[in-house]
Specification:
This protein is 77% helix and 0% strand.
């Protein structure tokens, strides 16, 4: 958790957040959630097409959706506007929150606790 906070702070410390309107922020959140929803649909389609169990579908969902966006930040910082950095960090936060919600939901479930 501390590492995530340090990465977020380091990446947005120089970003002028006052220039980003609420409408734009809301749009970025909606697009981020839509991307994660597409990943969910992909994982569920593979589950249906190849008769996968949930033990295979959940790792597929996480693989499709969870991205390490550190390289995107390194590339975006020197060449682009503050909006790009803000968008990358916002998507990173949303994907981590959704993944932790899913992991916490499955914590006591037999899917999460059953060894492969």
């Amino acid at each position: 958790m501390i590492a995530i906070a340090v990465i977020i702070y380091a990446s947005v410390a120089g970003v002028r957040l006052h220039a980003i309107s609420f409408d734009l922020f809301f749009t970025i959140i909606c697009i981020s959630l839509s991307l994660i929803g597409v990943g969910f649909l992909i994982a569920m389609s593979f589950e249906r097409w190849w008769q996968l169990g949930r033990k295979q579908t959940l790792p597929l969902f996480f693989t499709v959706n969870l991205k390490n966006l550190g390289i995107a930040l390194v590339i975006a910082l020197p060449y682009t506007s503050s909006l790009v950095v803000f968008t990358i960090v916002t998507y990173y936060i949303i994907q981590q929150l959704i993944a932790s919600l899913i992991a916490d939901t499955l914590k006591g479930d037999s899917i999460a606790s059953t060894p492969s």
